[in-house]
Each structure stands twice: as C-alpha cells, then as structure tokens.
Design goal:
By secondary structure, the protein is α+β, with helices and mostly antiparallel strands. It contains 5 helices and 5 strands.
Length: 181
C-alpha cells in the first residue's frame, strides 16, 4: 500500500503583547464612538427641521410694509386683530371640540403678526391669530378659515396656495382657539 502524505494546514496566528491589545481596543472604541456621534449628527441634521424652518412660510410680495412710526402704532394692529391664547385641550368626544384651519404664516414679532392678520382680512379671508403657547414657542401663528372636515380644508388649502402663492399647513385646533364665524 501507498502511504498518503498528510497535508499540513497553514495556520495564521497573530501575536500581540498586552500593550498592543489595549491599543487595538482603544482605537476600536474611538472609531465606534466617532461613528456614533456622526450618526447622531446626521440624524439631527437630516430628520429634524431647524428652529426657523418649522414655521417658515413663503411670503407674498403684496405685504403691507412695516409702519415707520412710534411703538404704540406698531402694537395697535395686534389689539385690532383677534388674538387668542391657546386654550386647554378639550375632551375628544365633545361635539365641535375641534376644527381644521389653514396656517398661512408664523412670525416672532407681535406687531408684524397683527398687521399680517389685518392684511389677510383685507384680502377677504377669515383670518385670526394665535399667541405663542409657551416659553419655548416664540411664534405668533396666523390662521385662515374654520373647516369641519379635512376634505374641506384640503380643497381650500390648494386654492389658497395657488391664489396667494403661500405654503399652507392644515392644522387641527380646539374650538376655543378661534372666534366664532
């Protein structure tokens, strides 16, 4: 009989000292930590809007220019416009506990927001203003219309975007948020 030759398997081995092993672990942890922070940064940048972007709207060029008078005249339109504080949430089962409205602008200056409401009302829209809801919300929000169904609000939003060249956001508001028609 012929004897078979036993094949030797090639083995690869790495030899490291304790210092080398600790260095490898440290470098691996740094790379993983860097990837974690890069992922968090990318998620925050891509997925979440910036502070000004949430309420940003496209403004029409037919706006009333700011008044160049004293501060009393600037604050007067806010009093003339219908300003409501955001109410406490109503019970979901109540009849008429909420309605849909179209948010057309969001501004940080109360005087400018009051003038914007008067501007929308002058153009024939049923506009109203909601004051900022809390200390972390600086925006005065301007709404147009009061709709019972989402279908109504969608059709009106499309018409308003086309006619006024603004970006419209459909919002569900509690009934106490706006004046009655």
């Amino acid at each position: 009989m012929v004897a078979r030759k036993a094949r030797k398997k090639k083995r690869i081995s790495f030899e490291m000292s304790i210092g080398g092993l600790l260095g490898l672990v440290l470098v691996s942890l740094c790379v993983l930590l860097w990837l974690f922070f890069l992922g968090v940064w990318a998620g925050q940048t891509i997925l979440l809007p910036t502070i000004g972007e949430e309420g940003a709207t496209v403004r029409s060029e037919a706006r009333i220019p700011p008044a160049k008078t004293d501060t009393l005249a600037v604050e007067a339109p806010v009093e003339a416009a219908e300003v409501k504080k955001p109410p406490a949430p109503g019970k979901p089962g109540e009849a008429g506990s909420s309605f849909f409205s179209l948010q057309v602008e969001s501004l940080t200056d109360s005087g400018e927001a009051g003038r914007a409401v008067l501007n929308w009302q002058a153009r024939g829209h049923q506009a109203f203003l909601l004051a900022p809801g809390g200390e972390h919300e600086p925006f005065w929000r301007i709404f147009v219309g009061r709709f019972a169904s989402l279908t109504e609000a969608n059709s009106q939003a499309a018409a308003l975007e086309k006619a006024e060249n603004v970006k419209v956001y459909i919002t569900l508001l509690p009934a106490a948020a706006a004046p009655l028609p």
